[in-house]
Design a protein that fits this description.
38% helix, 4-stranded antiparallel β-sheet, 12 strands, 8-stranded parallel β-sheet, 18 helices, TIM Barrel, alpha/beta, 488 residues
């Protein structure tokens, strides 16, 4: 297809490195080189925010703050903030998984050393200036992290009354009484901002555009909700009245109880969605485009009483719809956004998406649950994926279909034979399924095809990134050093 654009879906934490997790160092630059050499246009990532419970990038401590564990130790060394011995102590074997518990302990020791050297160099004024520049969110975030530590990670609803809600006075008091803690949290954000900026500039130079990911909701136990409770459905003590999720679907028979507090859209509309504009602006400092996660929630959302233990009992509530996007698009071009429109598509969802010209998503794994889809005649204004971070890998999907005797493999094989991707006498096998799925995505009329790195490497479900509805044990897959050799 003429003007077809392609990309790879790979979260930055999955890159190989010597420091326990993929990050913003040479591995990111090498991957950009790989994308350019391969003729790709896009690098799609998951959210880059500071992850909270379950190590999930979709459950962030702040929807503004970057994940400090992406900071590259070798760049700190080049800046004279750590020495060779510090780097050696930060080394971790690449087992193909992120050991978050060990990583956090190891990286925090390194970061503390870098921070002390930064402060000893008399650069406090640099952090003061940065804190003022990012004051809309950063001051509250720095205090939030300090208090989380002081309260041994207890949720903010359990804090003393004088700490339960944020104020500028609270920031001034914390800075006066615990300057090292406050400045340390500012320092990490200053460093990650500078490293992200450098990677973004390199990607631009190489002609690679970055697709970011913006979760619809934010975590209850976050600096966002703590510092701006008036924007969320909370009681006077800060507990949610209703929470977000989705009803039973293809991923879960009992739905997904996310537990995020719902927005007070009426309040947000009142100030022109200022919080959203600031949040989008921060995300777009590093990304060229943004995938709007759970786009359906802008049209209608599944509201669940906070006392429920599953997502089965909820109700659909009308969303914010056009007034939100009319306001947001005053400052941003329409091609900024990709609508993650997976789920229960209604006419209203289609009209909102198409009315603004946002491309929707097609997941090839879902296209062979019956034999009616004609992939080679799909609409062009879509972005096609073999799978996403929430799916099995293509090989894992094939093997599960085989084990459970599902029809999906048979339907895919028949379609590939009918369209000439497979000879009539050839069979779909575990050895060729990943490559054939990629070829099918590339041959579709869809304007853009994005392929998860796991499918390019033809990996099974041991490389799966996330199992929806399972709170722990996800988000840890990494490219091993051996697999990285295949990407040279």
């Amino acid at each position: 297809m003429e003007n077809k654009q392609t990309g790879i879906l790979l979260h930055i934490t999955s890159l190989p490195s010597a420091y326990g997790i993929g990050g913003l160092g040479k591995e990111a630059y090498r991957f950009i080189d790989y994308l350019k050499k391969g003729g790709f246009s896009y690098w799609q990532m998951l959210p880059l925010n500071f992850p909270g419970y379950g190590d999930s990038p979709y459950n962030a401590v702040s929807s503004f703050a970057g994940n400090p564990y992406l900071i590259d130790p070798e760049t700190l060394f080049e800046q004279g903030l750590v020495d060779a011995d510090d780097l050696h102590k930060a080394l971790m074997p690449n087992t193909g998984k992120v050991n978050f518990q060990k990583l956090i302990k190891t990286k925090q020791a390194l970061f503390r050393k870098a921070f002390q050297n930064f402060m000893n160099a008399g650069k406090t004024s640099v952090l003061d200036e940065y804190a003022e520049q990012e004051s809309y969110w950063l001051k509250a975030f720095a205090v939030f992290c300090h208090l989380k530590k002081a309260y041994k990670n207890a949720s903010w609803q359990q804090w003393k009354a004088e700490h339960r809600f944020y104020s500028e006075t609270l920031f001034d008091k914390a800075l006066n009484e615990h300057p090292d803690d406050i400045y340390y949290n500012v320092f990490l954000q200053y460093i990650i901002d500078s490293q992200m900026h450098a990677v973004k500039m390199y990607a631009e130079q190489q002609g690679i555009r970055i697709i970011g990911d913006l979760p619809l909701y934010v975590s209850l136990d976050s600096s966002d909700v703590w510092s701006r409770p008036e924007l969320f459905e909370l009681d006077s003590e800060g507990h949610p009245l209703r929470v977000a999720g989705v009803p039973p679907d293809a991923f879960s028979e009992t739905g997904q109880l996310w537990g995020n507090p719902l927005y007070r859209w009426d309040v947000m509309r009142g100030d022109g969605f200022y919080w959203w504009k600031r949040r989008l602006g921060k995300a777009l400092k590093f990304a060229d485009r943004l995938r709007l996660d759970h786009f359906i929630g802008f049209v209608n959302f599944w509201a669940i009483d906070a006392k429920e233990t599953s997502a089965v009992n909820g109700q659909w509530i009308p969303g914010i719809k056009y007034s939100f996007f009319d306001a947001i698009l005053q400052d941003l071009p329409k091609d900024t956004f990709i609508a993650e429109d997976l789920g229960i598509l209604t006419d209203e969802v289609n009209q909102l998406r198409d009315g603004y010209g946002f491309p929707g998503m097609i997941i090839l794994q879902f296209c062979f649950q019956h034999d009616q889809n004609d992939i080679l005649n799909f609409p062009s204004n879509k972005i096609i994926y073999t799978g996403t971070h929430d799916n099995q890998t293509t090989l894992g999907w094939y093997l599960t279909n085989q084990k459970q005797k599902k029809n999906d493999n048979r339907f895919m094989e028949a379609y590939l034979q009918k369209t000439g991707f497979l000879k009539a006498t050839s069979r779909l096998t575990k050895a060729n399924v990943s490559q054939l799925m990629i070829e099918l995505a590339l041959a579709s009329p869809c304007q853009t095809a994005i392929i998860p790195m796991q499918d390019i490497l033809a990996l099974d479900d041991s490389a799966r990134m996330n199992i929806p509805g399972i709170a722990e044990g996800n988000w840890n897959w990494r490219i091993t050093s051996e697999q990285a050799q295949l990407l040279q």
